[in-house]
Write a structure and sequence with these properties.
Two copies of one chain form a homodimer.
Chain A lengths: L5 E3 H8 L3 H9 L6 E2 L5 E4 L2 H14 L3 H9 L9 H35 L28 H5 L5
Antiparallel strand pairs in A: 1-3, 2-3
Helix pairs in contact in A: 1-2
The structure holds a DNA duplex (30 and 30 nucleotides).
Chain lengths: 155, 155
DNA sequence: CTGCAACGTGAAGTCCACTTGAAGTCAAGG
DNA sequence: CCTTGACTTCAAGTGGACTTCACGTTGCAG
């Protein structure tokens, strides 16, 4: 398995920490590419692991797969990101992370402030402010992704 | 409208910054309660606004509606949270926010570190680490909720 | 050459927080 | 009384990132 350069989907999944179904999904979505055996089974080149790492990192920063697709699309001829591409994209990511952190910190500080006043006055309260960006989306929890929420179910 | 203590759904929706459909949904889910006119229309007591503020605040902290339901359930006889309840719950929320902030900061620092090494080495890279809590959920972006993601679509 | 784990496909299902649609009813100003 | 806008219900749809299912095929160790 190390002797050959092409890995079957199960091996890739195991190494990347993904389900094979996720890999097939990514391939359908054009996020990764691979070859096939004569029998039709997927064989991925080793660098797909790097590409998957890139995808996961992007998700961790808060990008949707759509945005990941766009990011990968900026790379010439769809190559796997090099260190230089990486550094360039990371500048944007860092800004996003900074914004996210700032948002959560504002919320936390609002929590303290609002406890003091006990207001919960809608629209004027930092914690429940419906005019914030946080309130603009149609669905999902306002600030935390399912991943972190599900980890601790009890209030 | 101010003379009477009971508000129609549209009024509540407007004041709370929600759609009426969301209010009906919350009522179906048992998160809020109200009375009805003889004709069957909803009339909400004024304190429902406070309850809605509570719900929104909880969502901002990252709670699912399921968790909000549980939180409201800890209050005796389903009353609207008082300042004391509020203070108690906020202690838990603050911890969550702190954790979330810490997580994002770790990610940001990992970004810097990993740019330096250019590794993206899967499992060992802070940015793409599939063993993190961030990687454990089935769906959605790993760290940022749709609300904040959608605001800036371009990479 | 055989057995069986790993692979293939397409369609449908899941989760969450709502929204949308269709079809009909109520309340209040003129 | 009439019109009109706000309201009612129930069922189905949305979006994102996958997973699950049902059923058939491939590849390799023994």
């Amino acid at each position: 398995m190390r002797s050959d350069d092409l890995l079957p989907i199960g091996e890739v999944a195991r190494r990347a920490g993904l389900a094979t179904s996720a890999l097939r999904f990514y391939e359908r979505e054009g996020l990764v590419h691979g070859e096939r055996t004569s029998g039709g089974q997927r064989r991925y080149p080793r660098n797909v692991l790097r590409r998957l790492a890139f995808i996961r990192a992007a998700q961790n920063v808060g990008l949707s797969l759509e945005e990941v697709r766009a990011a990968l699309g900026t790379l010439p001829d769809g190559r796997t990101p090099t260190r230089a591409d990486w550094a360039q994209l990371s500048r944007v990511w860092r800004i996003r992370l900074d914004e996210q952190i700032a948002g959560l910190m504002a919320l936390r500080d609002g929590l303290t402030t609002c406890i003091g006043c006990g207001c919960l006055s809608l629209r004027r309260c930092a914690l429940s402010n419906p005019d914030d960006a946080a309130g603009e989306s149609g669905s999902g929890a306002r600030f935390l992704p399912p991943a972190l929420r599900r980890a601790r179910a009890a209030l």
